[in-house]
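I'm stuck. Please check this protein.
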Amino acid sequence: MKAKIFTLLVSLISVMSLSAQSLRLSGRVMDAKSEPVAYANVALERLDSTFVTGSTTNEKGRFTVTVPQVGDYLLQVS
């Protein structure tokens, strides 16, 4: 019983601390042959296509974008 309560408390504290931080979106861009796409532009946009933030993939096709607040967004890769 104590283990369940401890797990619940840790989960709640984790969720509360996440709400105060910005979110990070990360991923990998790959082509049709499953090869990484190096130096592709990744743009985070609002649903009305307003630019929010962006990044560029590295040589392995990986990227990270910081999301300023929770909401609905479009992720565009070019």
User: Anything to note?
Assistant: The chain has a mean pLDDT of 81. The helical segments are 2-19. The beta strands are 23-28, 41-46, 51-56, 62-67, 73-77. The first strand starts at residue 23 and ends at 28.
